[in-house]
Amino acid sequence: MGVPSSRIYVAGEWVEPAEGHYPVVNPATEEVIGEAPEASAAQAEQAAAAARAAFSGWASASQAHRAEVLGRIADLLTKYNDDLVPLVQAETGATMRVASTMQVPVAVERFQRYARHAMDSPLVPLPPQAIEATPLAKGGVVGAVARRAPVGVVACITPYNFPLVNLAGKVAPALAMGNTVVIKPAPQDPLQVLRFVEIAHEAGVPAGVVNVVTGSSPATGAALVASPEVDMVSFTGSTAVGRRIGEVAGRDLKRQLMELGGKGAAIVLEDADLDTAAAGIGSTWAFHSGQICTAPTRVLVHRSRHDQLVEKLVAYAGFCKVGDPLEPTTVVGPLISAAQRDRVESLVAEGVAAGATLACGGERPELERGFYAAPTLLTGVTTDMTVAQEEFFGPVVVVLTFDGDDEAVALANSTPFGLYDYVFSADTGRAYRLASRLRSGNVGLNTVARNHETPFGGFKHSGVGRDCGVFALHAYSELQSVVWPG
């Protein structure tokens, strides 16, 4: 397919960006890999207007047609896999193992999934109800059905860690339900999103149904969120940005779907298999350099098992080779930017200054180029420390201790976040009962594996709403009740 477009995509046309271009940097090499369009706020408004103009036609299209278009997108993503993987890898800094197995293939699977779901009936049958006569209406048997209808124009604002996968998780169910979309990717890695839109165009998506605006400043996304043409904002990113989006979207009562920050608690009970627990917790280091909102970054271990678990975690970190993500033996690649690396280093230093102990890591890897951070383990952490409360979004794990289940639950629930927690125990019944006490949208019992049919989202400051599986169809639709006399 060649070099991704250097223009934005509005109403089925490639348009020159009003504000020029900005460089996209490979976080492993610090080299510029492309120039991304710098769209203006006015162009974001134009994209929203284009999506509005296309909405009626797409919403009234047959389910079979929408399913066919989504299926073609999946087929073309597969066709261009070998072209997409290197681009995804270069932009995100992901290891080739992650880029080739967890980025493009998962995006394909999501479009295939919602091509199937596009054929699901939008009707929810309801039992008839016998009602007494009232001054309002005659008595009798009244029938009813609930119908799922598209929300309208959806602004899809995607994160930098899994740009293509997250895009697929938003755009595919939104289109399946008959919505139109404007995509605003994270500024760090938008080239793969532009490449995706080229694929959507080739797949025959009607003009205006999919639009994309990119930019390095917040102005473009802010204009999109504030646009009166936008009915819903689907955002994945930090809680701080989510709050600002919520304030603006709330003024017009826009529908919101927010997947925000996490500070995943991994509760390790005294009867836990420590090898299983260490492998799960170690995924914070081994999977995309800890740039995952669901990572088990906050270990809560029973005091009697603390030393054993720390020993295993230090050993695990020692096997996590940091370096060039193109090398097959590399486990930990770079963070997305110098700013993010500096933030992680600053938080680690703050934790040490507050009294935490560096069990391993903490230093900057000795590499000539790239935004790398070493796998780091902080012990002796208490819940009042910043490192126990704030999300690192990097390869850092902190350890706290507890003496009983009640204390473990209190510690797990002691942060503003509640996205994904974990419980490790030989007694799955006990672990299940403990899970019900956690203020978290998701809980893994003796595993960090995901089930992608489950509703995904967070409690508290970790988000609003749920998606994944059929729940994404609910997220991108409104319910309309239709009632008639029997």
TrEMBL record:
Coiled coil start-end: none
PANTHER family: ALDEHYDE DEHYDROGENASE, ALDEHYDE DEHYDROGENASE-RELATED
InterPro entries: Ald_DH/histidinol_DH, Ald_DH_C, Ald_DH_CS_CYS, Ald_DH_N, Aldehyde_DH_dom
Enzyme type, top EC level: oxidoreductase
Gene3D superfamilies the UniProt entry points to: Aldehyde Dehydrogenase, Chain A, domain 1, Aldehyde Dehydrogenase, Chain A, domain 2
Protein family per UniProt: Belongs to the aldehyde dehydrogenase family.
Source superkingdom: Bacteria
The protein, known as: aldehyde dehydrogenase (NAD(+))
Keywords for the protein's UniProt record, in alphabetical order: Oxidoreductase
A Pfam family that the UniProt record links to this protein: Aldedh
Organism whose genome encodes this protein: Frankia nepalensis
EC number(s) reported in the record: 1.2.1.3
Start and end residues of each Aldehyde dehydrogenase domain: 14-482
Annotated GO MF terms: aldehyde dehydrogenase (NAD+) activity
Catalytic activity: an aldehyde + NAD(+) + H2O = a carboxylate + NADH + 2 H(+)
Keyword Oxidoreductase set for record: yes
